[in-house]
Structure formats: C-alpha cells, structure tokens
Hints:
By secondary structure, the chain is of the alpha/beta class.
Amino acid sequence: TAQELGLPYLSAFLDAIGSNFTHGANFATAGSTIRPQNTTLHQSGFSPISLNVQGYQFHDFLNRSQLVRSRGGVYEKLLPKPTSFAGALYTFDIGQNDLTAAYFLNMTTPQVVAVIPDVLSQFKAVVKAIHDQGGRHFWIHNTGPFGCLAYVLARVPTAQFDEAGCGVPFNRVARIFNRGLKKTVGQLRKELPLAAVTYVDVYKVKYELIRHAKLHGFNESIRACCGYGGEYNYSREIGCGGKMKKKNGVEIEAKSCKDPSRYVNWDGVHYTEAGNKWIFDQIVGGRFSDPPLPLRMACYRKE
Length: 303
C-alpha cells in the first residue's frame, strides 16, 4: 500500500524515538484480536494488544505527538501536523483472530457465531472513538477465508471440505462475520455522516486466489511454503524457521520452500509476499470496494 501511494513504510507506534511519523503510524500487532483475550500470549498465541488497546495507543499518540511537536526543531520533522489526523486514512484488517481464537478454545461453530455480534460491537466502538478524535476516513477490510489456512485445518477437525480444499464450516463463519461487518459499516455511515467509510471484500479476492491458484500463477494454494510436516507443511510445535530435536536426537528444521513466489501461503497463517501483492493488485482499484472507489480516492466522501 505504501509503495503504491509513493510513501515510506509506516513506522510502528512503539518504534524508538527518532522514527519518522509524519506519514502515519502502524498500531497493528501480530496475532491481535478485536476483543481482549482471557489468555496470555504464551497460552493462546494471540496478542494482548487487542483493538481497544490499539485505540488507547492512538489516543496517546495523537496527544503526545502534538505536545512534543510543539517544542519545534527536529520534532517538527518527525511528528505529524495537527491537520494530519483529520486528513489521514485509518485502515483496519482485523477480526479473523477473534474467530480462530474461539475455535482454538474448543468452541463449536454455533458458539463461535454467537460471539460475532459482541466482536462487531467492540469494533464499531473503536472506529467511533477515532472519529470522535478527528478521524474522518476509514478503509475497512472484511475477514478472509480462514478455512483455507493450514493453521486452522491442522488444529480444528472437520469432515467438510469444498472443491478448493478449504474447511466449509470455517468459511461459513467468516461469511457470517462479513455480513455483520457490512451491516456495521452501514450503521457507521448513518451515525457518522461526515465520515467516508470504505468496505473492502478481501474475502472474495482471497478465495478466488486460493480456488484458482494455478490460473493465477501459483503452484500451491493451501500448503505452507515455510514449515514442517503433515499434509499442509505446518506444525504447531515447530513454526517457520524453528528447530526441534526428536526423541531419537535427530534435529529437524522448518525451512522455507525454494520458490515462495509459487506459493499462496507462507507459514500456514500468513500469505506470501507474492500472494499479498496479487490480492492488493485486485483491491487497489476499488473493484471490490463499497463504495467502488480506488484506494487513492478513499479520503473522499461519496455524497
């Protein structure tokens, strides 16, 4: 996204002093959820920095950046102007981990579906809080077909698979979440009439890539490029780049495949750089957006 817009990569919010935040900040963390989790990172693999915490961090960043910037000098060159917050594009791609975390707690599919309204309510609250602090432009991705990801298929049993090899109940839950998210976006538009809110159907794009991977230049759609063992080259015990000794003393390593550009999936959880680029190329023009505006026009409100 940054490259497409001719911008440097976003600095992480927690980067050291001296980072340049004039073009924005990244509040995302690996494994984050919308709802706070009742488990530790070690127990579940999901981040304690949930979306509400990211919202608090944004609040602190907004206030502290302006306080420090007012000192002048180098700070003016590293921190955003006050007007930048109203003109910024606030992007969200979150929610999948709330669903998979519920499955990993041994919830049934109906139980996972039952938590979706609360997840979306908390998402809506954070977007409104950013709006209350001056944010006006929002670019919101729906969640992807996580039933096509090795880390789910290898951990949660299912007997139902579709023609792409994806777990049917998981993708059904993803679509239920997305219908709810689209409804939530509609509510936000009514409640925040000055805001420009774009809903992007990345589920449709990602599923098309996985279902017709070879048509789009990929050899492997679900099997991970970097991993070890099993049908999907994925193991919970040894992640990409990890090493482990077997009982017989033999050391095994989760190595990368020779050509990641031929794989859709990198490590059973994330897409490869090539996969992500293909997805971005589909959505940047606005063909899968509501309203159907390209990314460069996302900061314009359609009347």
